[in-house]
Amino acid sequence: MKKFFLMVLAVVTLAGLMVISGCKKKETYTVTFNANGGIGTMTEQTFTEGEAQALTRNAFTYDGHTFSGWNTVQSGSGASYTDGQTITATADMTLYAQWERNTAIVTFNANGGTGEMTPQTFTIGVAQALSTNSFTRENCIFLGWNTVQDGSGATYSEMQEITIEENITLYAQWMIPTGQQGGHYYVDLGLPSGTLWATCNVGAVNPTDYGDYFAWGETAIKEKYDWTTYRYCNGDRRYLTKYCNNGSYGYNGFTDELTTLEASDDVATVNWGVDWRMPKCNELEELNDYCTVIWTTQNGVNGRMFTGPNGNSIFLPAAGFRSSVSLSNVGVRAYYWSSSLYVDEPCQAKYLNFISPKCEVGQLNRFIGFSVRPVLIENN
């Protein structure tokens, strides 16, 4: 009887152990959320083993981006989940927010011109080239784009690569010439002398082109700019053969008392025709003294905008200069010849010089290659 009782007790105990074993406590797993470049906070989420549960909705933000879901790998190469998706967790894991850049629209405004341009879609934060300008404006020259209609905002050149963060409108900027002579445009700036200034440098097609570089009194470009190649001397600044008012600078004491370039040595007249010439020194001084002068960028080119008393403007690009075989200071500085000799030292001539903080008339050696901005002979 005792033996039987012990056997029954053993069976009951074993059955009890089996029941206890079948009620084992379930595991829990933690899901952590990572903003992956965004900002904000999200509380860890606890999942019970074997039980389906919806993921907590995303609360992170990322300026300029749209949330696109979760991924088990930061780069997005792992398992992906949608926002609020119901899942069954099998282990602790971190979910990384995935983001897509937003888009923004650039709208083009003809600003007095005509034609059509399709708005351009940009991915925010990604550099992209602007569309080619297709607007036209009668008798006007396209200079570039500006974020403000009057040109006082940020400037962009045609097809420049830009990065934007929001929708913007770009306004076409135009130079409005007063007229045209011999195939070249000019502008009346309302100056006291009535001088009419060309819109482009000699050798240029557009106002923002640098054009060609000329030694003073020469009418063609060349490879090397120094005294050995200069047309009107015998290899040295004190051996001048033309435009010399001081015998100590002339070859064998030569003088001719010429202090202004003759038409045959005036690169504007020779290249553009008899209606055009190089400006005199006093005309460069008048341009600087009577205009509002600002350092600016037009169509991606640095330079000076000269706005006359009547509100009309011309742009002189910072084209630099040529000396020997080198081109220097492009985009930083500019040098524009006058037709006037520097009589105190005739190996030099007068020119307009500017860098970003200042603009002034000075003098330098005649052999150096400078830019030339012509004036119309009419009314001068």
Give the topology, please:
Elements: H1 2-22, E1 28-34, E2 45-48, E3 53-54, E4 65-71, E5 80-81, E6 86-87, E7 93-101, E8 103-109, E9 120-123, E10 128-129, E11 141-146, E12 155-156, E13 161-162, E14 168-175, E15 179-181, E16 184-188, E17 196-198, H2 267-272, E18 276-277, H3 281-290, E19 292-298, E20 301-307, E21 313-317, E22 321-323, E23 326-328, E24 333-341, E25 348-355, E26 358-365, E27 375-376
Parallel strand pairs: 1-7, 8-14
Antiparallel strand pairs: 1-2, 3-6, 4-5, 4-7, 8-9, 10-13, 11-12, 11-14, 15-16, 16-17, 18-27, 19-20, 20-21, 22-23, 24-25, 25-26
Helix content: under 10%
Radius of gyration: 38 Å
Q: How many angstroms does the end-to-end distance come to?
A: 142 Å
**Secondary-structure class:** mainly beta
Helix/strand order: HEEEEEEEEEEEEEEEEEHEHEEEEEEEEE
> Which band does the percent of strand residues land in?
25-35%
Shape: elongated
Q: How many domains comprise the coordinates?
A: 3
Mean pLDDT: 91
> What ranges have pLDDT less than 50 throughout 5 or more consecutive residues?
8-12, 14-21
Number of helices: 3
Query: In total, how many beta strands?
Result: 27
Largest sheet: 5 strands, mixed
Multimerization status = single chain
Q: How are the strands of the largest sheet arranged?
A: 2-1-7-4-5
